[in-house]
Every structure is written in C-alpha cells, then in structure tokens.
Amino acid sequence: MSHKAPSLFDWTIVSPAIAESFRKLNPRLMIKNPVMFVTEIGAFLTTISVFTTKENHLFIVQLAVWLWFTVLFANFAEAVAEGRGKAQADSLRKARKDTVARLLRDGVEESVPAGSLEKDDLVVCETNDVIPADGEVIEGIASVDEAAITGESAPVIRESGGDRSAVTGGTRVISDRIVIRITSEKGNTFLDRMISMVEGASRQKTPNEIALTILLSAMTLIFMLVVVTLRPFGTYATANFSTPVLIALLVCLIPTTIGGLLSAIGISGIDRLIRRNVMATSGRAVEAAGDIDVLMLDKTGTITVGNRMASDFRPAPGVSEAELADAAQLSSLADETPEGRSIVVLAKEKFNLRGRELASPHATFIPFTAQTRMSGVDVDGRSIRKGAADSVRAYVESKGGVFPSEVEKAVILASQAGRTPLVVADGNRVLGIVELKDMVKGGMKERFAQLRKMGIRTVMITGDNAMTAAAIAAEAGVDDFMAQATPEDKLRRIRAEQAAGHLVAMTGDGTNDAPALAQADVGVAMNTGTQAAREAGNMVDLDSNPTKLIEIVEIGKQLLMTRGSLTTFSIANDMAKYFAIIPAMLMATFPAISPLNIMHLASPQSAILSAVIFNALIIIVLIPLALKGVQYQTGGALEVLKRNLLIYGLGGIIVPFIGIKAVDLVLGFLHLA
Amino acid sequence: MHTSELVQLCLFIGLLALLTKPLGIYLTQVLDANGKTLLDGLIRPVENLTYSLMGVDRDKEQDWQGYTLAMLLFSLVGVIFTYLILRLQHLLPLNPQALPGLSAHLAFNTAVSFATNTNWQSYAGESTLSYFSQMVGLTVHNFTSAGTGIAIAAALVRGIARASANTLGNFWVDVVRVTYYVLLPLSFVFAIFLLSQGVVQNFKPYDTASLVESFQSQVPKIDEKGDPILDANRRGLLEVKTISEQSIVQGPIASQVAIKMVGTNGGGFVNTNAAHPFENPTPLSNFLQMLSIFAIGSALTYYLGRATGNQAHGWSVWSAMMLLFLAGVLLCWWAEARGNPTHQLLGIAPGDGNMEGKEVRFGIFNSSLFATITTAASCGAVNAMHDSFTALGGMVPLFMMQLGEVVIGGVGAGLYGMLVFVVLAVFIAGLMVGRTPEYLGKKIQAYDVKMAMLSLLVLCMSILGFTAWAVASQWGLAGLNNNGPHGFSEILYAFTSCTANNGSAFAGLTANPSDGDSHYNATLGVAMLIGRFLMIIPIMGLAGSLVKKKIAPPSPGTFPVQGPTFTILLIGIVLLVGALNFLPALALGPVVEHFLNLQGLLF
What we know:
Chain A has 24 helices and 21 strands. Chain A is of the alpha+beta class and 673 residues long.
C-alpha cells in the first residue's frame, strides 16, 4: 500500500471522479445530503424557467448552468475523496484474489475455495501458500510476508500461543507450516473490511456528522422560509421577484460550501489514517480520537526505546572510570545485543575509546549463556567478565577475589533507581559497575508538553516497580504512571477515567489486553497482536508502532477542526451574499437603495450571477483544504479557537466580498452580464 | 448627542452591572428549593401554606416532561380564567365605567397575550377593561407569566449544571418561590416608589375636566347600542365631533406599572403606556422603570454563572447581551437625533431631531433608550410611539425583537433564548478546537442541535409566515394606517412583537378593527402561543437531554465559554444564525423606507 498521498488532482483519480459527479446527480443519492438536494431542485426549477421565460435569457441560462455546477462540484469533492480511497482498495483487492484453501477436516486435508470457509474451520498453510482468511495459528510457527496489507516487506513471525498468533487473510507464508483456525465470518475478513472502509462503501455518518447535517438542514429550512415569504413581501412592495432570482438567493444562503464538502472531509480523515497504516473500524472511532483527553501509553516502545542502554560507569574503589570503561568496552566488542553495543558507544562518548578490532587468535569471546549469566572476553591474558552481580561475585570469589562492599552498595542503589547494574570484573578484581537504564525516546518530553497544552493527559503503563516507573515518568514528563500494571488494572483504570468524564485511548496487543481495548474509547490494536486484541479494538495499527496513538489523536483533531472551520466559513459567507443579492433584487423597484450596493457591482443581474458563481467556485477552491485538512496546530483550545475564528470566521465574512466583486469584474469584462 | 445623555447611558449600564451580582445571588437562593433567603421569616409560612393547599411536595422534582406539562397546564388554566373574566366583565365588580364584556377574539387575544408574558394590547385599557379585569384578570398574569419564564430558565440552567441526573426541579415550587420571594416584594417596593413620584393608585371613576379650548376631531360613528356603523366596505364610518371635555383616567395604576416593568410584561394600564404622566411622571421614574426592565434578566446571567460554577461564563453572556444592546441604543439614538430631512426642509431645526411621537418630557435620548430597552428585554412598555421613529430608529426595536429577545430579554425567556444561541455557538465553533462540541463539559449532539434549531425555526416561521399571509390578504392590508414600506413595517412589527412575546406595538396598525374582523386578533394570538410554548417545549427537551449527560472535567483543551473571544463568537452567531434571516424583510421595510426618506418620500 502506498504511504504517500496521491497529488490532489491526480488524473487517474480526477477523470473517474468527473464521471462519478454526474452519476451522483441521481436524486435518490442526493437526498442523503439535504443541502445539496435543495440545490439540485433549485437547479432543476431554474432549468425549466429557461424554457418558460422569454426575457433575460442569457441571465437565466447562466444561472441554471452555475447552479448545476454547484451540485456537480459538491459531487466531485466527494468523488475525489472516494477515488483516493478506491486506489488503495484496488491494491488491496489484488491480495484477495481467489485462493485455494487446504481445509483440514477430521485430520484429512481437502482443497476448497477460500470463499467457502466458515468460522472455526481449520486450514493448513505451508511455504508459499496464501493464508485464505483471518485466523489464529493453533499449531506451528512460520514466517509470514504481510506486505500485502502493511506495505512492509520484512517477514514477521507468527506462532501458536502467545501474543503473535493472529494471521490475516491475503498474506503469504514464506517458510514452515502452520495450522490456522479461521476466526472471521465469510465475507467479513479484515481485508474485506479494509476495502469497504477505504472505498467508503460501508461509511456511515458519524454522530457529529449527523448532528451537523441536522443543523445544516434546519438552516436550509429556515432559508427556504425566508425565500418563500419574500415573494408575497415583494408583491406587497410591487417588486416582482422571479423564481430564478429567488432560487439564486436561496442557494447562496443555504450552507452549500460545508454541505458539499462534509462527506469529503470525513472520507479524507479516514484516508489520512490509512496512509499512516492505521485501519479504523468506523468513522466514529476517528471522531472519538479527537476527543481523547487521556492517553494510556505503554512504556516500552512508546516512551522508551525498546532496550535498556548503558548510562553510567561506577568504578570500584581504586579503579579509575576510564579503566572501567576500557574493560567494559573490551568485553562488549563482540556483544551484538543492543545493551552490549550501548556500552561500546558510551565508552566512546565518555572517554573517546575507539572500538578495536580484536582478531580471534588473540582473543576468545565468551558469549552470554543462561547458565553463567555472564559474557566477556579472554585477551592478552586478561579475562574480563560482565554480568549480573551475583554471577560475577561467584566468578570473582571462585578465583580468590573479594567483592567490595562499595560495589555491592552501588548495585543496590542502581536497582532502587530502576536501573540494571552490570558488574565488570578483570580476573579476580572487580572494576565496578555499568548501569543500564531505560532511555526515553528523543522529543517525547516536548510532545507530552504539547499534549498537556491541548488538555490531553498521558498515563504511562509499565510492568516495572513503582520506583523505576516514577523515575522514567519524571524523565519523560508524563502526567501519571501505572506501575506493575496488569491487564485488569488497565481495565479498572480506564473505567475510572471514563467515570470521571474522560475519554481514553490506549494501545494493546495481547489477548489479555482485549477487555481494556474494548473498553477504551479508542483502542488501537497492534497488527502483530492476537486476533482477540484486533477484534476488541476499534483501530488496528498495521505497523504495530505504539507511538502512533499520538498521531491518531492528531488526525482526529484535525478532522474535527477542518469540519468546524469550513462550517464557520460557510455560515459567515452569507453576510456578503446578502449584500450582493438583496440590493440587486430591490434595485428595479427602489432605485433609491443604490447606496446599499456597497460592492459597486455592475448591474443587478451581474450581482446575482456573481454571488451564485462565487458560491459554486468556492467549493472547488476548498476541495484541497477539505482533503488535506486545515493546518493542524497544537496549543490550548483558546489559542486554536482564536486563530481559526480569525481565519475562517472573519475570513469567511471578508473573502466573499472580494470574491464576488472579482467575479463581477470578470463577467463585465466578458460581457456576460 | 449631549454629554449629559452619555453620562446617563453610562450610569444606566453601570447601575445595571452593580445590580446584577446581588440580585443574581438572591435569585440563586430563591431558585434553590431549600435555599435560605433574607425574607424567609416573612414569607416561608405563606410559602409552606401554599404548598400544602396545592398538595405540592417541595422536594419532589420533575423530569423535563413533567416540568413542561405542569407549565402548560398552569398556563392553560390561566388563559381560560382570564378569558372568562374578560368575557364576563360586565357581570363582575369594580367596573365603575360600566364597560361591556369583550368580544370572543379580543378576549382570546388578550388572555393569551398576558399568559404568555407578551402583553400585546389590541385594545385601549382605559376604555375597554374594568378595574377588576385589569387587576384580577391581567395583573395576576403579570406575576405568573414572569414567574413561569424564570422557572423555565432555571430548569434549563439546571439541565446544564447537573451531571448524569434526570430531574430539572419542581415547576410549582419554582413559580411559587419566584413569585413570593422576588416578584411580589420587588413590585411592592417599586410601586411605593412610583407612588412617591405621583403615579395614581385608586378605584375612583374617571375624572372629567373641561377643556380650555374645545376642538374638532373625527371619531367613529356609533349607533344607539354603541356599535360602530359600517360603510359598504365594512369600514367604520367617521363623524366630526366637537370635543370640549377631557376624561382623565384613574385606577390602581402604580401596582400594575411596577410588575409590568419588573416582570417585563409591558402591558400598560392606559393605552399610551409609559408615555402617560400617570404611569411615568418624572425623569427619575422613567430611569428606574428602564432599570427595572433589565434588572431580573441581567441578574439571571449571574445565576447562570453561579449555577454552572463558571462565573466568567455568566459575565461573558452578559457582555454579549450588553454589546448588542449598546449597538442598538447608539443606532436608534443617532437616527432619532439626526431627524427627518423632510421635516427639516419644512423648517424644523436639525438640532431638534425627530420629536414626532415623543413625549417632550423625555426627549430624543430617553425615548430611544427606552425603546431599545423595552424591545431588547421583551417588555413592550413604551414611552414614545415607535411608529413615529425614523425608519432606521424604528428598525432598532424591530431588530431587537427579531434577535429572538435574547438581549437581556424577557425575564427568564431572555436567558433561555440566549442559551439556545450559546449551544449553537458551541456546536458550530466548538469543532474548531479539534474536539466534538462541548458546552461546559457536556457533549452537544444531534438531539440537542435539533431542539435548538427547532426553537429558532418556530420563531422564524411564525414571524415571516404570518407577515406573508397578512400582506397578501385583504384583512391584513385593511388594518394599515400607512402604506408603502412603512405599512409593511407595521405588519412585520406586530407579528414580530407577538411571536417574540414582546407586546410593544408599532402603533398605526389596527388589530381590533371596528368592523369586528377577527383575523389580527386570532393570528396575533396564535403567534404569541407559538412564540411562547413552541419555543419552550424544544428548549425543555434540550434541558432534559443535557441534564442526563456526563460532564467532562475542564482542561486546557476544553472549548472556552468565557472571555472576550467567546463573547464575540456568541454575538456573531446571534447575528448570523438568528438575525440574518430577517434581513430581506427588513430591507423591504425600514431599509427601503430610510432611503426613500432621504429622497424626501414619507409614508
């Protein structure tokens, strides 16, 4: 799957979208969008007027054309958004090509089409078999290529039991043999859901979209009332308002801008998630992500890098730190574990000790084993060892050395501070300890501070003891932590937060995370996780990167900001449209009101046309904004509100004055009105 | 615009601001069913007796349906009660002028008018109603309709403030407490003050005085039975009559005037309302009457802040109201001070402004201020004839009502109307902070939006729908005194005033014509019912939905409903969503009239 957004007006998306815009004119589809449905009826009635009225032919024809364009532009916005999803769906669909499944029935294998598999069927997959449907590995271990859904070419391990048992239909087994129990219903596999999600086929309006549609429909109704009563008002004033002019006023007043872009905004929000390799099971989940105010983050992998790193050398009495560092580095040269490498790096940083090439004739490396719990090197007659305190103590004492009490104390202190002490010895002499600690990922502290400013609290979850947890929490700048957290603790914590009115997001992968994932308002399951976890959450992260939770929240917020900004813009536009159309309508009967024509529009007809044309064009102009989302800003609500109100509220009042005037000038130049 | 007038304007706003907190705290005590107040010793026993007579349990709260039903029942009984009194007033006591019973449609219109806190008067009080009708039939409503408005506002505020609850208070307890603890004592004190200024309070028949100089006037021709004589077009015939005597009105005026201001009722004892020297004798009485119109509505915003635990929010709402008000006053004042160019061509000094239809005792500024206050606050008492204002000056009162009576507004009604806009402002702009809309921690969802928009739709439908019907009908045009855009404004004003439950009249429109045509009385009556109850029902639905919601604890990410940004936003939403709908109608009325006036055309 591509991770990059296609360019906004990629011809392969635009050309089918144009065709789609016309297909969407079908009133049965339009009625789902009441604002645009009213516009379509208006366009239709104006078209009839073209044939029934004699005078002002050019004017009415242009009016009709631009009213149809208004509807088409709105359809186009939706079609482009859907088209961008479809491009992804097609690449997914290739993975779903009909495969033959090796169904295991009473221990006998038979070949059946993948489409006929039922839930709880058992199937066998061997090297180069495509996994026929979502399931759980119940026997064996295999490496699986999941590029079809994640876009990641490195194979992953899937094995029975544990937290890496889930497999996805459409992925390919690269080695070994596994037996899979099918967990998805027919036609409802992960891939199926993903395709329908990106295509928007199963897209239902989210709760906020429904509420917004109600607002827009009610406003449309009010404006219809305004326009319908305007005719008798006009008759009283001996001003006869023609139907096309009244329709023009109506279409300009009803919130067509947001009405036309609303579904595009929603679709593109989901689209943005998918581009970050996150699958949401519903648009509702994306919306909820914006509301999150408590983030429960796993320590390992999210806040800290996965492995512990060397942070300090603490020499024994009588030993210099440089000597300790040198010995520690020597012993770690062949140690390819992240911890080992971190010791080499630390020594280099602190004492500029270069990593040395030690040829094997001179040096013998002693690898780490579960029995000795030490590793090291024998070189130039020295035998350097590093390992857990008790193992090294036993080693040193067996060679007649003494384990200094200072070092013992340092070991205890380090453990209490949540660090892992490795004791380094040269022969029977203890040189000191190397402290390993959790390293907080770069930039996390700033990120948490930003989140705090936005009113989002972060809670770190860790299996460490409280002291270790507190130390890391303080360093990372999270607001709260849960030490020695069990899945039950997490569930309880989520419930408590929710009872206090908070909305909680979390990530999880194991089966025992499932209840908490289901309880959370946004539960992001790791794709590497179990099927149970993937079913429980309302999002799946195909990259299995827990840090992404923060991005998900940001995408949700950006979606809501875009929707709100364009709604405000759309409503604010009405001011200018009134000033364009009302004087134009009254001018013929009451020339005295000409000072009200503050934009100095050329003629009444030009004024009305300009407003209608601006109203149609603004939809096209705003499509990129609807698809990309408004600029996302961190900061407190007040700050963000001020900024957006200024741009989209005040801007929404001013821009149409300029726009309508510009269109009026162009119309005059082209002698169209 | 003189400095003294500016000082008076500042004094008015300053005193109002000072009054808001103490009165707001007192309201908070009263609106808590078990709250302690200063007057407990005096009123508590009567209050308790009332409950036991009514069989009301003070601590038993109602859900929104129960609360609304009780309110509807109470209002219905009130309408029927007053309807019967008005129809039968010739059989009832305290009728020294021996006035006859009212026609069915006038009685309906009047009963509805007072029960809905509108106090639209299709009649002239002094020549239509007996003292008994005024005091028992109408003044009772001045208290109960005001009490009802405050009760509904309290219910909505409780809906906002309470979390995960179900009940909104007890309607009976709210109305009783508001009436006993707030309206009665305030009116009593205010009535005493008015007496001191010279407002009359008696049960004497009207006085007669001989005119120093008799004059001739056209009056409706009546037959022996007292019925008007009609011509072929069913218009009342007029005859020229020499008038040498003046009838001077008497009656229990002070008591009615006090509550008509405090309870934003506005129904005058006499037809000229607060322009009459017996209703409003001195500059001081005029100033305090204006202040008393705004007092409770203003204090309710403090109650909002108190109850929701966000005082700054209360003040933000207050500021939005005051800014809209200030804009209105300044425009009206400017337009009236500027005067009428045609008058000036005829030799009237431009410095005199437009004094047509104004009391010389009050002048331009106090008439403009009073007109803006009375329409902003859904009171409807007038001390000048709005019909005679300049086109733009007259547009201000009209516009204030079309805002939905949310600029301070009617007691209670102003707050619940404004809270609808608050909910809409939060919903529309709330998304811009990147969360689904949230008002003081409560999610604003589809149902809430539906209810809020329904209340706006109803307002719009009644004003525009009825006006359209009237301007397109014979009966509608027959009532007009003026033609052209001014006539249009008269009709628009009448339906706006009734729908918004304001009750002030643009005058010039004959709603109770001598030929007995019932259209205006009936349609205006229905408009008042729509404007009151079809507004309240969705708003109570909103309260019922809000009260059930959880409250998300505030954080820096919470949508701010306090401070200048919110105030500006709220004003923007009131104007864009509420008022812009009336722009085309206003354009055809006062706006066109203004430009035609500039060209020397009068209507």
